[in-house]
Design goal:
Strand order of the largest sheet: 3-28-27-26
Largest sheet: 4 strands, antiparallel
Distance between the termini: 28 Å
Radius of gyration: 18 Å
Length: 304
């Protein structure tokens, strides 16, 4: 099975084999990753503690340093990652997932209140986002993604759906999750507005185009590829990167669900991950992963 053949360290993958039930193999073009730098401290030399969120900007990397109840910013200019600033926000005392919004502020999910709040890069709290339910039950948001048009896709486990709202929280539409999606764990949106959801229990990957009202599976069971599907992100070419939260890997798919490879491994050495919590794709062509149990942020470069 594929996940038992994965390397311990990150390697360059030229192609990936998908094994059919009859034992024959089909081959898909793979995606190449190589290790980048890791971040473990802030600008004052204090250590990160169980970080759960990363947000990739053009010149900034933002981290929700969840164990310390704060946010940490890193400067990415000139391809050097330098600790820039850090701040705590009383209203968001346990920040987890974060993303940059269209105005350059941070939108953060607080694990304690289950609410989305905005934060300026100077640490100023800019208010909670009131997410309209569209007439359904009050949403319980466990993950979200900001689309290129500024809309927000919020994974609502109470309603068994993805709520699409404007940047101000106004209801736009809902995309229902099928009944066999029992443990949705993450959501991502590509440049076309296509929404992807990972199901940890399957594990399986679902998707819905911009005009579709219900998620549909784009993969079969991913049990051969991962132990527990977690957070996910999409790059500019439409590749979907899904974290294996329990197995410490990054599993890569095409936008159609085709298998493109698995990299990284469980551990604490360079290129390894322990209970990774979130992942983002940066404008400079790299990935950042919140490596929670290793108390660090790990980066990977996508090779040409």
């Amino acid at each position: 099975m594929r996940r038992y053949l994965r390397p311990i360290l990150v390697v360059v993958t030229l192609c990936a084999a998908a094994i059919r039930a009859d034992g024959t193999a089909t081959w898909a073009q793979g995606v190449k990753l190589r290790n980048g730098p890791s971040m473990t401290i802030d600008s004052k030399g204090a250590a990160l503690l169980a970080p759960q969120g990363v947000a990739c900007g053009s010149n900034l990397l933002a981290v929700s340093d969840t164990g310390n109840g704060r946010f940490v910013l890193y400067d990415l200019r000139e391809r050097v990652t330098t600790p820039k600033s850090e701040f705590a926000v009383a209203e968001l005392s346990r920040p987890t997932q974060i993303q940059f919004d269209a105005k350059g502020n941070l939108l953060a999910l607080d694990a304690k209140s289950r609410r989305l709040g905005r934060v300026g890069l100077d640490g100023a709290f800019l208010g909670f986002l009131a997410v309209e339910s569209g007439g359904g039950p009050a949403p319980v948001i466990t993950s979200f993604a900001i689309a290129p048009d500024g809309s927000i896709s919020a994974l609502d486990i109470a309603g068994g759906r993805v709520l699409v709202v404007t940047a101000e929280g106004k209801f736009v539409r809902q995309v229902l999750l099928p009944s066999d999606c029992r443990a949705p764990s993450g959501v991502a949106v590509d440049a076309s507005g296509k929404i992807f959801v990972a199901d940890a229990a399957g594990p399986r990957l679902y998707a819905a185009a911009k005009d579709q009202a219900t998620m549909a599976p784009i993969t079969g069971s991913l049990r051969e590829d991962m132990d527990f599907a977690g957070a996910l992100t999409v790059d500019a070419q439409g590749h979907v990167f899904v974290l294996d939260a329990h197995g410490g890997g990054i599993v890569i798919f095409g936008s159609d669900g085709s298998f493109r490879g698995r990299q990284a491994g469980f551990g604490w050495l360079d290129g390894q991950l322990r209970w990774p919590a979130s992942i983002c794709f940066g404008a400079t062509g790299g990935l950042a992963v919140a490596d929670r149990e290793n108390n660090r942020i790990v980066t990977f470069l996508i090779a040409p």
